[in-house]
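Lecture notes, unit on protein representations.

Consider one protein chain, 358 amino acids long.
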Amino acid sequence: MSLVKAQNTKVDGVTAGINSALANRIGTLAARPGPAITAAEGIHLVADLRNQAGKAFGYVAEITGLDAAAKTAAATETLVVDRRGLVRGLVNTAIAMTGPMWDQEEMSWLGQQTAGVQLGALTGLLGRRVLGHYDPFYVSRRGVPGRIVLVAPNIARFERETEADPRDFHLWVALHEVTHAVQFAAAPWLAGWIRGRLDALIAADDESASAGNLVDAVRRLPELFADDAPSNAAARLLSPEQSRILAELTAAMSLLEGHADVIMDAVGPKAVKTLEQLRPRFEARRLASGRLERALRRLAGIEAKTAQYVQGAAFVRAGLAELGHEGFNAVFKSVEALPTAVEMDDPAVWTRRLGQGL
């Protein structure tokens, strides 16, 4: 069943050089409908996800000390979607974020179809796996930035497969995304900085940044299917300048993901009674995949994202041990306070820099 309407941006045809209609069709087919959910189950699931998300803001504020940011973030829209709605939203976002590249290059009909197929395959994979995400670039009709998206069928499937306590799991998933909402409310400059770095990544002054190199990229995709391919194999398609920008973004995203993981676990002992059972099951799910899925995960950056959780959480724990939450929260004050890639590997360097006033 369809739990909610798809996200509200219209996608119908060839947009920005990509056959977006094809991407949506393939993405929806690849994602598959998900587990069967009755109308009554769906209504209860959606209501409880929204309810737990609402509660999560108070828990995050209590742990982090970011009270003002949590109060601001509490106005963030929470959207509960099915897999089709998630795919549609991801396609819209991908097209919006890659627009600068297609503005510079005219793609052939074959290129448009190829891009649509690739985007559809990746969003279809994400459609089956993503439990929730935070979209910092969305602005509601009321002018509130950001949106929390929770994927009901994927959450329901995890509960059934692991026999997780529904209430605990709904709150735990919501805590991660709510922490992201609070992070961006504490750092209102952050969404613009990320958008700017993504634009720079796409528009980097290098031949490899152009859509004309799509054929070369496709030829190299089989590298991702090798059993010994590294998790960052897709990054080999980037130029040196793009790699530098990607390193900046990766450090920032590792910080955000690690911080959200640490906070959701910190809340656990008080609010998530079955945390000790949930965490190992959740980690096993992050790592599980078949050969085809591993290749797509490398292309989509999911394996690198999984590493971000680990590295980011280690960085945050080290920073909190040295500075406490009040001191650590300085990271949200300015772009200069963000850790570099080197500092992510050595948090002591970052804490010393912070202590010296950046």
